[in-house]
Amino acid sequence: MRKVNERFATLGELKASGYRPRSVKDEIRTNLIGRLRTGEPLFPGVVGYDDSVVPQIVNALLARQNFILLGLRGQAKSRIIRQLIAFLDPEIPILAGSEVNDDPLAPVSKYGRLLIEEHGDAAPVEWVTRDARFVEKLATPDVTIADIIGDVDPIRAARGGHVLADELTIHFGLLPRANRGIFALNELPDLAGKIQVGLFNIMQEGDIQIKGYPVRLPLDVLLVFTANPEDYTARGKIITPLKDRIGSEISTHYPASVEAGVRITGQEAWLDRTATEGLPVAIPVFIAEAIERIAFLGREDRRVDQRSGVSQRMPISVLETAVSNAERRSLVCGENVVVPRPSDIHAALPSITGKLELEYEGELIGTERIARDLIAEAAQETFHAWGGEAVAEQLDEIVDYFDRGGVLQVGDTASAAASLEGFRTVPGLVEAVTEMGLAVPDSAGHTVAACELVLEALVAEKRITRSDGGSYARMPRRRPDAPPKPTFEA
After folding, report:
1. How much is the mean pLDDT over the chain?
2. Closest CA to 386 of 435, 352, 339
3. How far apart are the first and last CA of the chain?
4. Residue 296 vs residues 79, 209, 304, 377: alpha-carbon distances, Å
5. Which pLDDT value is given to residue 182?
6. Nearest to residue 410, comparing CAs of 336, 342, 320?
7. Which residue of 2, 38, 152, 460 has the fewest CB atoms within a 10 Å radius of its CB?
8. Which DSSP letter does residue 338 get?
9. CA–CA gap between residue 472 and residue 187 (Å, rounded)
10. Domain boundaries defined on the chain
């Protein structure tokens, strides 16, 4: 084998080095085994799949199988397939000028064979990096055989003086150009059936036919697909012979726990505003949890179309928008740190409504109403997860304050100091968040966020009410002397 960082420029030098070709699946398998032995992370940044999806992918790669990732939107399918590049060698040799990454010792194209016939051991060799060996394509209904497999190029035939049946007239598509590498096809069911036929023929027999001319092309490629289960019935389907040739069907999923979801959202959201003259951001843990619970509740709400799912991109967008609303407030008020509150989550409503697909019942209610319900429920669950039952006495004091006619206006542009003064007028409120451990003595912003969380939980429990403008008051009650509501009998 060649020495590290030593490149051989000709076929003869490559042969003398002891180089031996191997298939891309063997190459991936060998490098994967090395990572498993050293304990190096296999898919950095992919959270929540260590005990489910990742072992199945590892099994497929060890078995040298093509596989498909099946899951709803926002489940890291594209991220996973792009990280497969890490299992390729840093670089490999090819015959110089080859469009299909011809192995110098075993060329598959006519161009490669003619190059060796003409130059022998002096045939020039190039080196390609692992990034150049990954080809990705989004399947759409307008994708053609020419895009994936290739087509006859009349101009090339005319310039080279070749007949159209000559392999040298072919302009190769994406799949042959991925030879000795990875070919990833996203949203496979959207691909027309006749194109899928071309794929399984390559996978099994290794031959292609272009414009009626048979061309034997034994490609060496790892095929990876992604698909959304909804696509099987809504827009297209995967033809049975192709499914039969895919080694493993691996199902992805949304985070199994709120903690895992918080990790993913925190990792993916753009939160470092200091690089662009912004303020430092301090996100209370309970705020991050409340935002994550919105997605979890949406995935269980019968008014939301569960076939479409609630993408993990939703809490990421909500967190970014909530932080931006808090950042705007901090800049206006002259504060030196950005601390988002529940009212900032309400300000992020556009990041929720655009990502919810509703059932018929939900359409009748409206996306905005459902989004506000999810925010309130998320605040309630977060409040109880942090031990809200332990402050029942303080909660009674808070509700009693509003029942006696107390009203509290919480503006999302009010500073943390001004908001805290307003919250101190509500008996038991600051005491409740202090006892729960949500308040931070040297951070008015954290304490204000905690107070708003308590009030949002009470709203969800229908013990007080909140207007769209952020005003808290008592729940409307029927007057004792009010006439009874009319009843109707069949």
Report:
1. 88
2. 435
3. 90
4. 22, 49, 12, 11
5. 97
6. 342
7. 38
8. B
9. 47
10. 11-251, 258-474
**89, 221, 248, 331 from 65: Cα distances, Å:** 18, 11, 7, 54
The contacts of residue 130 (CB under 8 Å, 6+ apart) are: 85, 86, 88, 89, 90, 91
Write down the pLDDT at residue 151: 77
Q: What is the dihedral of CA 338, 341, 346, 349, to 10 degrees?
A: 40
User: What residues in the chain have per-residue pLDDT under 70?
Assistant: 1-6, 153-155, 157-158, 160-166, 205-214, 231-236, 477-490
DSSP code string of 453-483? HHHHHHHHTTSEEE-TTSEEEEPP---TTSP
Angle between helices 429-436 and 444-460 (to 10 degrees): 100
Question: Which residues have CB under 8 Å from 261's CB, separation 6+?
Answer: 48, 254, 255, 292, 295, 296, 312, 315
Distance CA 302, CA 208 (A): 48
What is the amino acid identity at position 225?
F
Which residue intervals of 63-109 are DSSP H helices? 77-83
**Which tens digits make up the pLDDT trace of 201-220?**
777 766 666 666 667 778 89
- What is the rounded distance in angstroms from the CA atom of residue 59 to the CA atom of residue 194? 30
Please check whether residue 472 is in contact with residue 346, taking contact to mean a CB–CB distance below 8 angstroms. Answer: no
Q: How much is the pLDDT for 415?
A: 93
Return the half-sphere exposure (C-beta side, CA atoms, 13 A cut-off) of residue 238: 23
| Domain at 11-251, CATH class | alpha beta
Answer whether 455's CB lies under 8 Å from 388's CB: no
* Three-state helix/strand/coil letters over 373-416: HHHHHHHHHHHHHCCHHHHHHHHHHHHHHHHCCCCEECCCCCCH
pLDDT at 308: 84
| Backbone angles phi and psi of 471, in degrees to 5 | -100, 125
Tokens linked to 424: 């101190």
Q: Which of 262, 254, 256, 258 is nearest to 384 (CA)?
A: 258
DSSP string, 179-219: TTEEEEEESGGGS-HHHHHHHHHHHHT-EEEETTEEEE---
Burial category of 279 from C-beta neighbours within 10 Å (exposed 0-12, middle 13-18, buried 19 and up): middle
Q: Tell which residue, 228, 233, 381, has the closest CA to residue 300.
A: 381
Per-residue model confidence as pLDDT tens digits over 307-321: 888 999 999 999 999
Cα distances (Å, whole numbers) of residue 367 to 30, 72, 352, 356: 50, 20, 9, 7
